[in-house]
Amino acid sequence: MVALLALDAREQPDRIGSPGQGCRAEALGGESLSEDARRIHTSHPLERDRQQEDNVEMEQHTTVDIAASPARVWEVMTDIERWPEWTASVRWARRLDEGPLRPGSSAKLSQPRIPTSDWVVTELEPGSSFTWVMRGPAILTKARHVVEPLPGGGSRVTLSIEPHGWLGELVARAYRATTDRYLAMEAAGLKTRSEDASRS
């Protein structure tokens, strides 16, 4: 789920170029900044604030209300290998470990138009949320899945994805519409499967 942006650097078009190309900070006179100067530039408080703002802008998310208990939604959401049964955004999924999902758990996902990738759980609140990441050359993608109880009953789910790294940001911009479509498919599929009483 929300496993888009798992693109390996080898899959990118030539126009992206090599690390630093088109993204390199330049000093006056057109010369490249030295390593020390670049380090000072990126650690400056104003530059850190700019990077944080960029990350917020790059995050994509969707929210859906589901007429099912958080426990039921959590059961569906964490049954990774059955995701292809309710969302076309995942062709197949395979857990690389056994037992309940937990920090350190990993899975391999295959999605349309995206290279098969390994995802590793980094944070998990049982029955409430989990975050996992995909790492590749010059890219780290973080996907978060949150389920909350609604006051009148039922659940609210938020799915989000956030790219990091120079390649991750380029890929995110190029695939923004596809990411939105996959998030919508996954939210709709999760809602339908969770509300299907015959499968509880």
Provide an overview of this structure.
The structure is a single chain. Helix 3 (70-77) crosses helix 5 (176-195). It is built from five helices and seven strands, in the order ααβαββββββαα. It has one domain: Alpha-D-Glucose-1,6-Bisphosphate, Chain A, domain 4 (2-Layer Sandwich), CATH 3.30.530.20. The protein is globular. With 200 residues, it is α+β, with helices and mostly antiparallel strands. It has helices spanning 35-43, 45-58, 70-77, 166-174, 176-195, and strands at residues 60-66, 92-95, 106-111, 114-125, 129-136, 139-149, 155-164. A hairpin with a 5-residue loop joins strand 6 (139-149) and strand 7 (155-164). Mean pLDDT is 79; it is low at 4-33 and 46-56. It has a seven-stranded antiparallel beta sheet, with helices on both faces. This is Coenzyme Q-binding protein COQ10 START domain-containing protein. Residues 1-56 are annotated as: Disordered. Residues 35-56 have a biased composition (Basic and acidic residues).
What's the short version?
By secondary structure, this protein is an alpha+beta fold. It has helices at 35-43, 45-58, 70-77, 166-174, 176-195, and strands spanning 60-66, 92-95, 106-111, 114-125, 129-136, 139-149, 155-164.
